[in-house]
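Pilot study result, target chain (261 residues):
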Amino acid sequence: MIAFLKTRLRQMRREGRAVRLINALAYLNYQAKNFRDWLGAGRMARLLQQRAFKDDTTALVQFTMQESGGAIRPLQNPWEISQLMHRVREKQPRIIVEIGTAKGGTLFLFCQHAAPDALIISLDLPYGRNGGGYPRWKEALYRKFTKPGQTLHLVRANSHLVETRHRIETLLAGRKIDVLMIDADHSYAGVRQDFALYAPLVAANGFIALHDVIPNRFDPEIEVHRFWDELKTRYPTEELVADYAQGNLGIGIVRPITARV
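Predicted structure:
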């Protein structure tokens, strides 16, 4: 019933009906989730401080999904995100850029699977749709994700703006991105803009991962699949989908990146 109601409200917002009321309800839900995460954040911080993590992708994914009452649980299919992290660990990227931080679960996994001296940049829009806009208090928690020797930059800005891309380029200091994750604004125009702005910053032997690449039957505002279908006609791609009947999620990988962006 709750899932049906959420789907209906999203459809109404997409149709321009009761937009202010629906946005207000969404904001209240956002604050309630953050309060619940805050209640579990202390335990999560203690677990992170212990740093008793094994280099076991399955165990790390399970950690994000089940610990701290969901404080950093990613909106991911466990098998799909595990497969992505296997590819990240194999590559040992030294530069990762993530567009869309949300609860930080995927960010945590990137830190654990990247090179020991990796630079990791996570870009998120305050109060953005689809899970974006983490509260300021979470920054301290996110900074505990890194391994010794890694550098994390948390950028709170609109990824669609050229000036935000310039901020990212400044942090890169001439280096190219090894892994780019696009998981923020899930509209067709939004994901297309993120790809256009940041794909040119990816190394020739790097790859781009996009989340929610299969049609979403629960949320009509998620349109990543439309852009994903276009990418599949232009680049070599790989799909990480646990079950095409699941109705949402799915991770798409684009590689290698060429000048055709």
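One observation from the pilot: The mean pLDDT is 86. A full batch analysis is planned for the follow-on phase.
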